[in-house]
Backbone:
């Protein structure tokens, strides 16, 4: 695949940045697309722009702020983040990935990319239905039919948890980069984050598990 072109759906977070580095290993040419959908913190866009610039990756930022009008959530409003057993977290934005991947494929068509990479995971997906493998496969078929083309949506993190995502970053030689320069925190703190929000807890628990396992392997 080194002679082909890919586009990464990119937020500047742990998962999408790991996927960006993965894509740079897999494809000859890589571009990134970030969506401005009225997320809680503008620093997310700044972080994505900074990483893309540092990695010399052509970066597209698309205006999707209409999504904030249609599907407000704690991810787009300054509201409490609530997680309840048996229900979707208040950070769920209905239709977000459906729109993101559809627009990413339209952009891919324009730039001549056949491969679309996303960091969604069914292992650590917080119950979001649009992070499931069945959705990705179904959408891939729909996009190809709608555009009469042959795109491939890649999900390198689909079947691994956060601990294994840290392992992949380490294998790619970017462990420290991911740890210090990406933004996962719902409170907009780059790196280790606030340590209290659900995203930080998931990220940091995976990090601690990986570091402990690696230390055990080396002892």
Residues:
């Amino acid at each position: 695949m080194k002679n082909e072109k890919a586009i990464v759906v990119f937020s500047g977070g742990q998962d999408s940045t790991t996927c960006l580095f993965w894509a740079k290993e897999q494809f000859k040419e890589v571009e990134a697309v970030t969506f401005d959908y009225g997320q809680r913190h503008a620093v997310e866009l700044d972080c994505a722009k900074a990483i893309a610039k540092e990695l010399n990756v052509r970066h597209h930022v698309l205006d999707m702020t209409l999504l904030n009008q249609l599907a407000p959530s704690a991810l787009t409003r300054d509201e409490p983040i609530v997680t309840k057993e048996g229900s979707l977290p208040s950070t769920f934005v209905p239709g977000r990935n459906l729109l993101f991947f559809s627009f990413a494929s339209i952009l891919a068509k324009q730039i001549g990319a056949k491969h679309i990479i996303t960091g969604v995971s069914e292992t650590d997906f917080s119950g979001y239905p649009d992070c499931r493998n069945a959705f990705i496969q179904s959408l891939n078929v729909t996009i190809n039919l709608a555009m009469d083309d042959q795109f491939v949506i890649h999900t390198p993190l689909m079947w691994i948890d956060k601990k294994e995502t840290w392992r992949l970053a380490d294998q790619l030689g970017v462990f420290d980069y991911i740890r210090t320069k990406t933004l996962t925190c719902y409170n907009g703190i780059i790196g280790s984050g606030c340590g209290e929000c659900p995203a930080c807890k998931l990220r940091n628990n995976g990090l601690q598990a990986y570091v402990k396992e690696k230390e055990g392997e080396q002892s």
User: Anything to note?
Assistant: The beta strands are 5-9, 29-36, 58-63, 115-117, 152-154. The chain has a mean pLDDT of 88.
